[in-house]
Design goal:
Layout (H helix, E strand, L loop, with lengths): L1 H10 L2 H10 L14 H13 L3 E6 L7 H21 L3 E5 L10 H17 L4 E3 L7 H12 L5 E6 L5 H7 L5 E4 L14 H17 L4 E4 L3 H13 L7 E6 L4 H9 L4 E7 L4 H10 L4 H9 L2
Parallel strand pairs: 1-2, 1-8, 2-3, 3-4, 4-5, 5-6, 6-7, 7-8
The chain binds dihydroflavine-adenine dinucleotide.
Catalytic activity: L-proline + a quinone = (S)-1-pyrroline-5-carboxylate + a quinol + H(+)
Enzyme class: oxidoreductase
Protein name: proline dehydrogenase
Length: 301
């Protein structure tokens, strides 16, 4: 737990971020980040597609504090969607609302999202809003509700560690949702703290959403959860085109291939860009064994 909290602390530490960014994405991050440019991300996606894996790309970046940066981020998302369409790859887009100015001006963030969704709609593509920390949850869901009045090619992610996850799942019936355990450090006032409680609630919300007849993207590296959901789908006659599994790029790649070869849809979340620090620290917090990546990266400098 100390290790987890340590890396979550580092994920928000500006001084350490500055230091790490100077080193560049060595430091182990390379094996879980698909390069810095759109072209590198597309090349990675193409390789995944060749193995039968779908993808979603995420241009890394969060906590934008100026209008200019928020507009720039939205423009970059649009360029990424255009590159996906030109390359003809099987890939959608994941993004964070704080990248698009949620903390700067809600209306600006809304208009940035609308610009992005127009382009995605023209290309018949889908955009997933990643879920950030608890302080952004209500703002994210309210913006999503407004977007859903005009667009059906947008969804979000719900975190199983939150007490209110089941209520939110009910309100979002019918929507394509990514279901996750949750990656941020949250207070005991809102979130389960014990792993076994998180796991239990996580499995429960996945089943709830699947039984609603809604499309579920089950995003986890946890083999126990994956096995349980495969069994649950079979027992409840839920067809394989009503759900998919998702994992992060560079994690459990053998299992990704196995899941696909069993006939399930498997989507890989492919992060790219030079703002990799927060993302990488959250991955270290989840699985301290990943520190081995970091050490290897440092030694190979
Ligand atoms: P967890 O880390 O709890 O692992 C469970 C068990 O699985 C481990 O004990 C181990 O046995 C095994 N295991 C896990 N990783 C392994 C590995 N690499 N190798 C071998 N065994 C391994 N979070 C968020 O808050 N907002 C978001 O929008 C997203 N988006 C998102 C998208 C995708 C595609 C994924 C996969 C994850 C996210 N997350 C996220 C992160 C998510 O909330 C969660 O923090 C991580 O996925 C870690 O939890 P897991 O469910 O993967 O299993």
């Amino acid at each position: 737990m100390i290790t987890r909290n340590f890396f979550l602390f580092l994920s928000q530490n500006k001084f350490m971020k500055g230091r790490a960014m100077k080193w560049g994405p060595k430091f182990g991050a390379k094996s879980v980040i698909a390069g810095e440019t759109i072209q590198e991300a597309i090349d990675t996606v193409r390789k995944l597609n060749e193995k039968g894996l779908s993808a979603t790309v995420d241009h890394l970046g969060e906590f934008v504090y100026s209008r200019e940066e928020a507009i720039e981020s939205a423009d970059y998302c649009i360029r990424t969607l255009e590159a996906i369409s030109e390359a003809g790859v099987d890939c959608n887009l994941s993004l964070k609302l704080t990248q698009l100015g949620l903390d700067v001006d809600r209306e600006l963030c809304l208009s940035n999202m609308k610009r992005i969704l127009e382009v995605a709609k023209a290309d018949n593509n889908f955009v997933r809003i990643d879920m950030e920390d608890y302080s952004h949850l209500d703002a994210t869901l309210s913006l999503l509700a407004e977007l859903r009045e005009s667009y059906d090619n947008v969804g979000t992610a719900i975190q199983g560690y939150l007490f209110r996850a089941s209520e939110d799942i009910d309100k979002l019936k019918g929507m394509n949702l990514r279901l996750i355990k949750g990656a941020y450090k949250e207070s005991p006032a809102h979130a389960y703290q014990k792993q076994e409680d998180v796991d239990r609630n996580y499995v429960s919300i996945i089943k709830q959403h699947m039984l609603n007849g809604s499309y579920a993207a089950v995003a986890t590296h946890d083999h126990n959860v994956i096995a349980e959901i495969k069994k649950f789908a079979a027992e409840n006659d839920i067809p394989v085109d009503k759900f998919e599994f998702q994992m992060l790029y560079g994690f459990r790649t053998d299992m990704q291939a196995d899941i696909r070869s069993e006939g399930y849809k498997m989507r890989v979340y492919v992060p790219f860009g030079n703002d990799w620090y927060g993302y990488f620290m959250r991955r270290l917090a989840e699985r301290p064994q990943n520190v081995a990546f970091a050490v290897r990266g440092l030694l190979s400098k």
